[in-house]
Amino acid sequence: MLKYYKNLFNPHLAELEHGSYITIGSFDGVHKGHQQLISSTVWEGKKNNYPTIVITFDPLPKTFFSNTELPSSLITSPHTRAERIAALGVDILIEYTFDNSFSTISSDDFVDSVLLGLNPKKFFVGKDFRFGYKGSGTPEVLKQTGARLGFETDIFEFTHLADERISSTRVRQAINNGDLKLASDLMGKQHEMCGRIVQRLNDYKGLFVPDAALILPPAGEYWVNLKNSTNKYFTKAIIFPTNQFIEMNLDQAAINCFSKDRVTIEFLQSASTAVPEEIDLEIANQRHSILS
């Protein structure tokens, strides 16, 4: 069971008494490159009997510093990011609020005030990892600091797909271009967002409102999965240029089922792509079907 902490400084947690293995990053989308880094941390931690920690941030540093980077460029909400990290077997997730105060911490103070309290034995970071004021801390700086303070640092090379680096930027570009297959290949998972069915337009349509302003494919029709903790429903969704809500084709049973709680929409492909004419659905233990 993942333990989640917000803004945990100098924690002295009992489970960290003998040390910890830690990885740090934004992890937006938790793509295959992130997964390799986190999974390596978990595998080595379990092998050596150390608890494993992921440190991340909200908002993302890139979003905080950029005047052009809008919240709608995010791939995953903090909640979805946490779910994906938990699925990789991490013991502890610590999310720091990246604000004006946090952004001015020097690299030395970052180590002293944020990292050392976690009793680190080993860090796992990507080669582009930066920390501290104006990104003055690099993986090499962390490695040198560890040699002095008694922890190790493993620096990971980039992960590639089709001879090109996997990155959150590449995932965003794929979604912006409507290339949901590439986005899925990069993340190992469909692009998704959480929200609620907030209004029923008629017996066959409802409005889905996302919990957070995440990146969406271009306006148009898409095949999607709509799911909650117990049911999954395959249908069409229409994204409007305003991106304020998504119109969905839903029968009455689906609306009754999914309007009760928080649901997740998974984008599959453009509706112009051929699909079977009839698809069976399992909704609240009743068989239904939808025609394309």
How do the strands of the widest beta sheet line up side by side? 1-4-3-2-5-6
Shape summary: elongated
**What is the total tally of β strands?**
16
- Percentage beta strand: 25-35%
Describe the structure.
- The chain has 292 residues and is of the alpha/beta class.
- 27% of the residues lie in helices and 33% in strands.
- It has 9 helices and 16 strands.
- The chain has helices at residues 32-47, 61-65, 78-86, 100-103, 107-115, 139-149, 168-176, 180-187, 252-258; strands at residues 3-6, 20-24, 52-58, 92-97, 120-126, 152-156, 160-161, 164-165, 191-202, 205-210, 220-227, 232-239, 246-249, 263-270, 278-283, 286-291.
- The strands form 4 sheets. It has a 6-stranded parallel β-sheet with strand order 1-4-3-2-5-6, with helices on both faces. Strands 9-10-13-12-11-14 form a 6-stranded antiparallel beta barrel. Strands 7-8 form a two-stranded antiparallel ribbon.
- β12 and β13 (246-249) form a beta hairpin.
- α7 runs antiparallel to α8.
- The radius of gyration is 21 Å and the shape is elongated.
In short:
The chain is an alpha/beta fold and 292 residues long.
What tags apply to this protein structure?
292 residues; alpha/beta; 6-stranded parallel beta sheet; 9 helices; 16 strands; 27% helix; 33% strand; elongated; disordered C terminus
